[in-house]
Amino acid sequence: MIYPRIALIGLGLIASSIIRAAERGRLAGEIRGYDLSDEARATAREIGLGDVICDSAEEAVAEADLVILAVPVGAMGAVAEKIAPHLKPGAVLSDVGSVKGSVLAAVGPYVPEGVHFIPAHPLAGTEHSGPRAGFAELFDNRWCLIVPAGETDSQALEGLKAFWEGMGAHVDEMDPEHHDLVLAVTSHTPHLIAYTMVGVADDLRRVTDSEVIKYSAAGFRDFTRIAASDPTMWRDVFLSNKQATLEILQRFTEELFRLQRAIRRDDGDLLHDYFTRTRAIRRSIIEAGQDTDAPDFGRGAVRK
Ligand code: NAP
């Protein structure tokens, strides 16, 4: 056991996975949870998530040794303000937000003296949300980035690292600005592109809706999985990581124009070289153990 009592605020995909993984690794003596939504709290109780589902955030965090904020990025500040007076001295306050600069700015001012604020971000997720979406294996072999907010107590930091490792994750440290740029490349911009592609197909009436759905395995299907991600979460991500996302989108647009020109000018060499380079990136992801090399991501045939 690493912490006698932990509390999760926001009982969605990430919090419910943390609860399942912490139970699997026996990392906490008692697990408490709270969600603003009556429905989420009722579901959490029904499926036996954690030990106690509380009716207030204050009650959930009281006496907790580790408190993790697992709400959309735009709600982090309001939650921190509410729970701050009820945090135990010496407790670790962390979060799982997909953007770090904005969370540091929103939560930092409310952190009481004697509470260790250590932001984190597990690089793991699915397109599902809510308390039923969580599973113990979500963080296995995935990275969790710890983004310490300035001078950080080393014992508190080691404890949080051990907690994430106990849930199956690999842990790295990163500064907030770099984190937000890396994530703009690896996650935020790809999501925006997927949202756009699915939106384009929806708008293009020359291809009928049924054709788009029926022939989706040609590539479109993989965009639709990403574009089915939670609208609130992703709205907050783009509004909170504006600068880095816009920078990467600018580069993306320039590349897109370059490829567009190559197609128009029949520049097959450029296209071939480009696709050879991108294929090598896929290979490195597989070699790093971050995806399967089974054809079609290991999906079997889709049955009706
Ligand atoms: P989720 O499944 O939508 O869950 C979020 C939960 O928080 C919802 O039940 C929501 O209730 C609740 N909530 C919203 N405002 C709240 C408040 N003020 N107080 C208490 N509860 C509140 O989302 P998630 O995917 O677990 O994401 C949670 C966090 O993890 C986000 O910051 C996200 O950026 C980050 N993250 C997500 C992923 C991913 O792939 N999903 C990966 C890594 C990190 P309502 O539904 O009623 O609003």
Report on the architecture of this protein.
The protein is an alpha/beta fold. The chain has 12 helices and 9 strands. It folds into 2 domains: 172 residues, Rossmann fold; 88 residues, 6-phosphogluconate dehydrogenase C-terminal like domain (6-phosphogluconate dehydrogenase C-terminal fold). The longest helix is centred in the middle third of the chain and has 28 residues. The strands form 2 sheets. The protein has a 6-stranded parallel sheet with strand order 3-2-1-4-5-6, with helices on both faces. The protein has a 3-stranded mixed sheet with strand order 7-8-9, covered by helices on one side. 49% of the residues lie in helices and 12% in strands.
